């Protein structure tokens, strides 16, 4: 039964989500506006939709209040007053409304806004896993799988039919024939798990601004990949001259200094893939963020490691170069040299926050 | 599908209800039959979102309201205890999870409202069968939706709602303009005036200048011109400025039939709700007066005392930057009752210069109860404050006026002087805190433009909102729209011509 109010509320929901959709670019670029809430939903603050009226502004407005206070004492800031119909002359403040969106909805909006293609998981036929499903019943089996209710019912029926049932003393004794057991079928399911490896340069030249950009961008990438795959595993690598595998929290907060050897990160990534994610079973995504300021002699080793070990087994290898006031930004030039050879190597330069939107589109626009 | 919430009141509550009803009657309250229903919070929020009515036309703003109420409740920020609607019979909704003391209080409070609805003069013109009327509105809107599509109608409703405050709250009580001349009368009159006014008599060519002398003809033509000018003045449109902008639009804006219908629905409902805005302080004050009287004299039990005190004080809480209508209303009514009981009124008392004597003035007149019943019958918030607010009352209740300081964007206490407090209070109450706006000219510049006028009383319009509202007005009027207001102490005209906004200082005449 649908109540009127539910219909109106759904309509409102749609309108307000439409607002989010319209302004998604803003929300993407300013990731900190998104308060993460739990695992499944995010709540996004949007300005309330209001129907405009001719109404009084603040200038010249006032009212009457009650309480202590000297003449001239401040009692409240403009626009701070939350509720009330302006009974005391105070205007209704601009409400902020939190819209709750599931991550799926958000991902769909993102996909729509960026016109992202659905990802086609690689090698469907190979990537299957076998699973047991309890779908039927059979007369034999181990006691641990006995279907108690069915067994009981059959026993009850038999006892009533043979007139052995006494309602005053309703003891049911199942015989061998009454017993029923759960039975399973082995099904093979397409296995579409994805592994995402984030690599970030934390050398001295990466400031908090750059890291914020990385954080925002990885949030959106995560959101999109989660929507596309049943489950994703994430690994985080930070590096300066040496690389470490860290957890998510550290990844975003750590601040190191020192030189930069990108090859160290590639080696670490290679190691993780070999250890945890056999490429035949996993869709592997690598995202690397750096300001592109690498130790010069290291470049050739990087390219070698990348082209030999990593790119061939990845769905995508994405390199995002964040503009930094200190870095030379040369590394992307090295990668550009080999860009032609690999169609799953994607490069993107992120100037500032406003560049996040375009960068995500570049990375995920391939549909791989 | 209509979801009915009508279920009989549980025995405990119906006993309380009967008891409270009897107390109310004993005190002389007079109300329509009142039907109570018990709802859970979700249902109560639904009714509240719909302004108390079970069936309204579909619109997202109700959903938004509902969402807000539900969230506020689940975060523990707010709670509605009860709702009453002004109909005959009165419907009142109680919240099922309230405890018994709360229910008693709420029921007593409800009878106060019901009495006020029935007896206050400002409610005398409201439609007491509004339940049906609202349902009819819903049906009509739904029909339009079936014909023209949901979004088309919704968009138009949004436009209308943006203008819903442009009504004349005093209209139901006054007959402003004379009944307009019927078509038949007008025709008769123009027939009578028409032919004899000048013109040539038929004449042969050679006789013409004798039968129709030029100078006479010219004179007649002049007279005709003067008359035409007078007629044109009479045709000034509208003849005098109108407060009921919506009515003007319904009559003269180029709308399709269904649009006209929707606009008139919005207008009807705005008129229905208007008196509640005009009497907020009195209505809540009156209801609170009665719940506190009935509860403290009869309804309270020992174990309910704390709960009652908690609830009552919560309702009466004051804050520095917002006036609590419940508190102001009840205190002022109590003050009036006391003054009239002691005879603290009339010229003799007013002219008494002796402060001590004045403070202890007690002529034992005992007219208090009678007086407050009279007050609830004839006053609205403005006349109530204007007539009964006293310096002593302001002092006792620590009242002050505050204003917006544009230089540091804060509200500051401005004064504790009686005259200023009263003036500020009246200002903020007039037109329910909304700007008063009139139609000045429906044919501005003789180009069919609409010209509105904002009655500037010291508070400026909120500019961005005003511009958005002009856009909506343009959607209805379809020709450029203008509003005259005051910005930075200069008379200014805000205009919107369908493409762009413009702001011009008004030229001096």
The total strand number of chain A stands at: 13
Query: Which spans of chain A of ≥5 residues are poorly predicted at pLDDT below 50?
Result: 79-94
Number of strands of chain B: 10
Number of domains of chain B: 4
Q: Treating each run of at least 4 consecutive H or I residues as one helix, how many helices of chain A?
A: 10
Instruction: Name the CATH superfamily classification of the largest domain in chain A.
Output: von Willebrand factor, type A domain
Shape of chain A: flat
Count helical runs of chain B: 21
- Taking the alpha carbons of the first and last residues of chain B, their distance comes to 61 Å
Largest sheet composition of chain A = 6 strands, mixed
User: Main β-sheet of chain B, in a few words?
Assistant: 5 strands, mixed
> Which CATH architecture of the largest domain in chain A would you pick?
3-Layer(aba) Sandwich
Beta-strand content bin of chain A: 15-25%
The most extensive interface between chains reads: A-B, 53 and 77 residues
Please write the string of helix (H) and strand (E) elements of chain A: HHEEEEEHEHEEHEEHHEHEHEH
Q: Which range best describes the helical content of chain A: under 10%, 10-25%, 25-40%, 40-55%, 55-70% or over 70%?
A: 25-40%
Return the structural class of chain B. Answer: alpha+beta
What is the CA-based Rg of chain B, rounded? 29 Å
Annotated CATH topology of the largest domain in chain A:
Rossmann fold
Helix content of chain B: 40-55%
Spatial strand order of the main sheet of chain A: 10-9-8-11-12-13
Could you name the key traits of this structure?
heterodimer, A: 368 residues, alpha/beta, Rossmann fold, 3 domains, 6-stranded mixed β-sheet, 3-stranded antiparallel β-sheet, 34% helix, B: 509 residues, alpha+beta, 4 domains, 5-stranded mixed β-sheet, 3-stranded mixed β-sheet, 21 helices
């Amino acid at each position: 039964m649908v109540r009127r109010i539910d219909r109106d509320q759904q309509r409102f929901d749609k309108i307000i989500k439409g607002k989010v959709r319209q302004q998604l670019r803003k929300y993407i670029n300013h990731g900190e506006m998104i308060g993460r809430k739990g695992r499944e939903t995010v709540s996004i603050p949007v300005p309330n939709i209001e129907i405009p009226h001719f109404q009084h502004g603040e200038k010249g407005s006032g009212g009457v209040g009650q309480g202590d206070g000297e003449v001239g004492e401040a009692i409240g800031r403009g626009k701070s007053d939350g509720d009330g119909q302006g009974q005391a002359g105070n205007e209704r403040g601009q409400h902020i409304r939190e819209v709750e969106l599931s991550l799926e909805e958000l991902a769909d909006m993102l996909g729509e806004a960026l016109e992202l293609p659905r990802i086609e998981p690689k090698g469907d036929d190979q990537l299957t896993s076998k699973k047991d499903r309890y779908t039927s019943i059979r007369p034999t089996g181990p006691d641990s799988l006995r279907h108690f209710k069915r067994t009981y019912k059959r026993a009850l029926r038999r006892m009533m039919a043979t007139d052995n049932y006494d309602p005053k003393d309703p003891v049911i004794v199942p015989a061998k024939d009454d017993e029923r057991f759960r039975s399973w079928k082995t099904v093979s399911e397409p296995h579409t798990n994805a592994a995402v490896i984030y690599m970030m340069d934390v050398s001295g030249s990466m400031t908090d601004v750059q890291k914020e950009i990385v954080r925002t961008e990885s949030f959106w990438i995560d959101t999109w990949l989660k929507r596309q795959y049943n489950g994703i595993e994430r690994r985080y690598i930070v590096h300066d001259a040496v690389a470490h595998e860290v957890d998510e929290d550290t990844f975003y907060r750590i601040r190191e200094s020192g030189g930069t050897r990108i090859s160290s990160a590639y080696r670490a990534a290679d190691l993780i893939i070999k250890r945890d994610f056999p490429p035949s079973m996993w869709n592997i995504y690598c995202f690397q963020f750096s300001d592109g300021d690498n130790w010069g002699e290291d470049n050739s080793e990087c390219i070698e490691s990348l082209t030999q070990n990593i790119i061939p087994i990845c769905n995508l290898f994405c390199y995002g170069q964040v503009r930094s006031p200190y870095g030379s930004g040369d590394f992307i030039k090295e990668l550009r040299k080999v860009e032609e050879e690999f169609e799953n190597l994607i490069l993107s330069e992120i100037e500032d926050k406003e560049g996040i939107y375009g960068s995500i589109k570049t990375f995920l626009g391939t549909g791989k | 599908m209509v979801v009915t919430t009508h279920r009989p009141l549980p025995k405990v509550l119906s006993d309380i209800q009967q008891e409270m009803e009897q107390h109310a009657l004993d005190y002389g309250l007079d109300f329509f039959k009142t039907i109570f229903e018990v709802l859970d919070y979700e249902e109560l929020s639904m009714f509240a979102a719909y302004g108390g009515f079970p069936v309204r036309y579909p619109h997202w703003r109700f959903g938004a309201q509902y969402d807000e109420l539900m969230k506020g409740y689940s975060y523990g920020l707010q709670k509605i205890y009860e709702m009453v609607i002004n109909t005959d019979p009165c419907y009142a909704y109680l919240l099922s999870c309230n405890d018994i003391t709360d229910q008693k209080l709420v029921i007593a409070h409800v009878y106060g409202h019901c009495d006020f609805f029935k007896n206050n003069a400002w409610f005398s013109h409201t439609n007491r069968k509004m339940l049906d009327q609202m349902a009819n509105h819903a049906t009509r809107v739904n029909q339009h939706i079936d014909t023209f599509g949901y979004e088309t109608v919704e968009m138009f409703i949004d436009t209308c709602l943006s203008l819903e405050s442009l009504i004349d709250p005093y209209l139901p009580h006054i007959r402003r303009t004379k009944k307009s001349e019927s078509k038949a009368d007008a025709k008769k009159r123009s027939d009578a005036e028409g032919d004899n006014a000048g013109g040539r008599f038929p004449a042969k060519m050679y006789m013409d200048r004798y039968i129709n002398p030029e100078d006479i003809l010219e004179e007649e033509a002049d007279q005709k011109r003067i008359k035409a000018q007078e007629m044109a003045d009479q045709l000034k449109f509208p003849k005098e400025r109108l407060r009921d902008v919506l009515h003007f639009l319904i009559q003269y804006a180029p709308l399709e039939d269904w649009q006209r219908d929707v606009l008139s629905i919005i207008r009807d409902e705005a008129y229905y709700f208007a008196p509640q805005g005009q009497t907020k302080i009195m209505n809540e004050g009156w209801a609170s007066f009665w719940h506190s009287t009935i509860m403290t004299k009869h309804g309270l039990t020992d174990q309910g005392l704390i709960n009652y005190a908690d609830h009552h004080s919560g309702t009466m809480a004051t804050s520095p930057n917002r006036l609590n209508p419940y508190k102001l209303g009840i205190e002022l009514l109590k003050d009036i009752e006391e003054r009239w009981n002691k005879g603290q009124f009339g010229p003799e008392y007013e002219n008494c210069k002796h402060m001590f004597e004045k403070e202890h003035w007690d002529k034992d007149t005992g007219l208090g109860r009678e007086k407050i019943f009279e007050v609830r019958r004839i006053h609205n918030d403005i006349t109530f404050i204007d007539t009964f607010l006293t310096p002593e009352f302001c002092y006792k209740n620590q009242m002050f006026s505050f204003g917006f300081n544009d230089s540091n964007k804060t509200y500051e206490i401005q004064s504790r002087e009686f005259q200023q407090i009263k003036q500020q209070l009246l200002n903020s109450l007039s037109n329910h805190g909304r700007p008063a706006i009139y139609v000045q000219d429906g044919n501005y510049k003789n180009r069919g433009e609409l010209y509105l006028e904002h009655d500037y009383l010291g508070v400026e319009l909120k500019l961005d909102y005003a511009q958005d509202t002009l856009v909506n007005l343009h959607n209805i009027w379809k020709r450029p729209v203008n509003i005259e207001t005051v910005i930075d102490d200069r008379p200014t005209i805000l205009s919107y011509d369908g493409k762009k906004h413009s702001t011009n200082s008004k030229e001096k005449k």
